Amino acid sequence: MNLLDVFEDRAKTTPDRIFLIEKERVLTFADVFEASCKLASGLVQTGVKPGDRVILGLPNTADFCISLYGIQWAGATAVLVNPRLTAFEVRNAYDLTEPKLVIGEPLNLSLIQSSLKVWSPVELIGIAGKSLAQRSHNDLSAMLLTSGTTGKSKAVMLSHNAIAANAHQLAKRKQLSENDRFLCTSPLFHSNGHTAVLQSMLAAGASIVLLEKFTPEGLLEVTTKFKCTAISGVPTMYQHLINHFVSKPVDLSSLRLCVSGGAPITLALFNEVESRFRAFILEGYGLTETSAGATGNPLEKRKVGTVGLPLDGTEIKISNDLGQELPHGETGEILIRGPQLMNGYYRDQEATYQAITADGFLRSGDLGILDADGYVKILSRKKELIIRSGFNVYPAEVENVVRAIEGIQDVTVVGLPDTLYGEAVHAAVISDLAQNILEERLKKHTGSSLARYKRPTTFSIHKDFPKTGSTKVQKSGVVEKLKTDPTLVKPL
User: Fold this and answer.
1) Where are the domains of the chain?
2) Which of these, 182, 25, 54, 173, lies nearest to 116 by C-alpha position?
3) How many C-beta neighbours within 10 Å does residue 136 have?
4) What whole-number distance in Å separates Cα of residue 139 and Cα of residue 157?
5) Could you tell me the CATH superfamily of domain 3-370?
6) What does the DSSP assignment read for 323-340?
7) Are 393 and 385 within 8 A, CB to CB?
């Protein structure tokens, strides 16, 4: 299965149907198909060959979509990166994937290697020739970066087959059709924006409205203007929308579906969104390693408090630490198997071996249960990652940066409850520095080395950390201490 074949078929059978809307720029399937083929040809002219990797670092624009499909038409693999990453983080992505070329905004990406040209989509289209590559459905379509619990970046390898399978699974579960118009607020470099929105809408033959930057007022205005039928986001986004909508209501009569993921949504917020927007909330669950989705609540039989049933063709079981399957109702690690699973982590056989069982199940690292009806309920994260506004923040990655600061002897990063963003990134440090000097160094160093959502927003100073029997820092003990004495928590 290959979505490029679906794309070509859409361009030939429904060439005038609208595919992308970006502000006042409206592109049909035929428009995007033609532009992406030209860009692919331009890539070939620069020397890009099948199997090469091309970094794509653009915001939520039509040019991102044209570039993504162009890279794939050229037979290459798109390495999706956040255009707002610092030069330090982009350099890590470059070293990990060794791209042949970069498509992005020079101001953000040009520092990764002075000799490497950063191309714009317009430049590549301008040098188009004629030759294009043919790809197999087993070839790699994209690589999405994840930092992992060790702080070491990993590149998740997703084949054309995996992405296409997940796109069709999600389109079916959401009951998408050619009549839908999905407002995309999720970053297209993220698995949700890339697969759950862009690719699933292509599979359904529907339209996408691109929003480059989220603001409550902007989203509600665009939803009304273009009569969007579906939106997706994290609970934090929906809380912002409700707060704005209450004071300045707008006509949302076209809206039928509000997809929520990335973090659990409270029952109160669930009910308020449905009541005020007159649309269904649909919760689901998935990982970058599952292309995007693994479960979703069926619209006709939703169960609040769960992330729904496994998607078509997907198997889920609950396992104990010995790898033994547990019966319904018992807590264990969620294991997933299906056509949407990753090929593995690029050039990291050990991490791949640890993530995928011998019989092909992905170890999610999340704890949950299967209820009597087969619905999945997420209880907690087995891994120590922090989820802030739907983005994964891996403590080890932040700790590696903070430890490099002069005057800090040790650090442990934990998540603290945040009513607006889900979790706050907190740096607990051991240091003899004065509080004002420590605060200044933390802000300066993390500000230049980490994307905004990864930066600690609070910190605390300690003489020592509670330890386990094996002398490892007991993060739960640190969190408990901060809860017991909240005066220790200082803002950044």
Assistant:
1) 3-370, 386-491
2) 54
3) 11
4) 10
5) ANL, N-terminal domain (3.40.50.12780)
6) SPBPPTT--EEEEEESTT
7) yes
pTM for this predicted structure: 0.84
How far apart, in Å, are the Cα atoms of 191 and each of 53, 142, 157, 291? 18, 10, 12, 6
| Nearest CA-CA partner of 377 in 328, 323, 313 | 328
Residues 39, 174 contacting (CB under 8 angstroms)? no
- Ordered per-residue pLDDT tens for the chain, 492 residues: 788 999 999 999 999 999 999 999 999 999 999 999 999 999 999 999 999 999 999 999 999 999 999 999 999 999 999 888 777 777 788 889 999 999 987 655 555 555 567 888 998 998 877 666 666 677 899 999 986 545 567 999 999 999 999 999 999 999 999 999 999 999 999 999 999 999 999 999 999 999 988 999 999 999 999 999 999 988 878 989 999 999 999 999 999 999 998 777 878 889 999 999 999 999 999 999 999 999 999 999 999 889 999 999 999 999 998 889 999 999 889 999 999 999 999 999 999 999 999 999 999 988 889 999 999 998 766 767 788 988 888 887 888 899 889 999 889 999 999 989 999 999 999 999 999 999 999 999 999 999 999 999 999 999 999 875 545 688 888 999 999 999 999 999
Give CATH superfamily name and number for 386-491.
Answer: ANL, C-terminal domain (3.30.300.30)
